[in-house]
Amino acid sequence: MTERSLRSSSLILGSGTLVSRALGFARAILLAQALGVTASAGADAFAVANQLPNNIYAIVAGGVFSATLVPAIVKSAVHDDGGRAYVNKLLTAALTLMVATTAVATVLAPVLVSLYASGWSANQLALATAFAYICLPQIFFYGLYALLGEILNGRKIFGPFTWAPVANNIIAIAGLVSFVLLFGFDSLGARSVVDWSPEMIWLLAGTATLGVATQSVLLFFFWRRIGLSFRLDFRWRGVGMRDTGRMASWTFGMLLLTQVAGLIETNVSALASGYGASVFTLQTAWLTFMLPHSIITVSLATAYFTRMSAHASANNLSALADDTQESVRRITLFMFWAMGALISAAFPFSTLFASGNLAVSQLAWVIIATTVGLPAFSVLFLLQRVFYALGDGRTPFIVTLCQTIVFSGLVIACALLPKEILAVGVATTLSVVGIGQTGLAFYFVRKRLADFVFRPILITTLRAFFAGSVSMLAGLCVAALLGSFSGGFAVANAGTGLLSTAVIGVVVTGVFVAVLRLVRTPELRDLLPRRRPTGE
To answer: If you average pLDDT over every residue of the chain, what do you get?
Structure first.
């Protein structure tokens, strides 16, 4: 993949993700206004139930698909049939697994809900279980979407995978609009868990599941572009799936560790449900956190991953090291800018989801605590794909094991915090431990790639940190002048909050670019539009 095609692929991925995330924010805002973002037992019940399919899918196959499919598909393309037999066998095996998992999980819905929220009342558990029965079929469709998407990505067809979630969000937004029109807003979370009717439950959870199903089925329409046609094939021997299975086993172990940590995090966070920031607040903050990560990091990493896999398959470790260094430097620069902007605008931005000074303040502090770890999280995402390209699942497992042990212990300690600040404690723990996990991943990358040079990354990181700190300070000053911390204009309502967020964002961006110019940062060209050479 050439530099030009890499940029083109990243642009396609980024544009689709941008549209999808914008709609995702509209969806989240509607959901927060319909259910309440803090101190809302109903919102937390839906949050746990709607997150269950993601958690179970991740345990069974989530990262396994993304970690193993692209390298395997790149290798299978050299087979005499162009990889058709491999893809059919792999898809048959994976879909069989997802059907079985979905069926078992749906039957066990009450047990799963109790596992993630053991401290809730019987009524709140019953509501979450009702949501879960409708949401859990999403497991199969998440698997189908990931499978079809990664196969398309492996053949360098990136657009459908990143644009299909747009349909998901449109359907979910339509469902939320219908919900609000029929049952009204509840931005303060005053609706009791016993006030939920079957019609309300089905409308909210049903449209969420319908959206996930639609985004997966849409990908089937693009298969002819890569010359593939699917048929069930249960003869799983003879096409090299053993190596894929070996890699998948390590990735499965890593994801299982991640979900154990997530289980502990959710149970601890759920202790504050009905009192302050809890499960739904953390999910809303995570959505904010994931916006720059998804638009920039995932887009770049997805495009780089295909090129990395090709270099690793050809045993060109020097080129792989160059890809790693280049991608990390680009991502680091973008993420420090995003961190400065999100922290500076956290209070006015929170008015889009929360109502009342207390709710806005609680959400804002959770966003700030989560965002501190954004650059490290994004870099770790990229470094993991370096190991996956090398066919190494063991090293990410070791790194995740260390993270899980430390994180779980600290989060359990957070249960001793006052319920009003419990979610902030959990978010802070996630950021601090994540930074340490990224440092450990760098250590192992350096051991695997002899040509990997860390010094240029360190220089870029220091420049980005300095520019991010100065721009964040400028943004916080503007936020203070607009009344973000004193109940003034910036947090008066969603309209003034959105306007203030935009103003702060412009200031942060301008100062960030100016500082990068001042310290002569060569990677600055990746933040600015490029001029096309004459005649191109």
So the answer is: 85
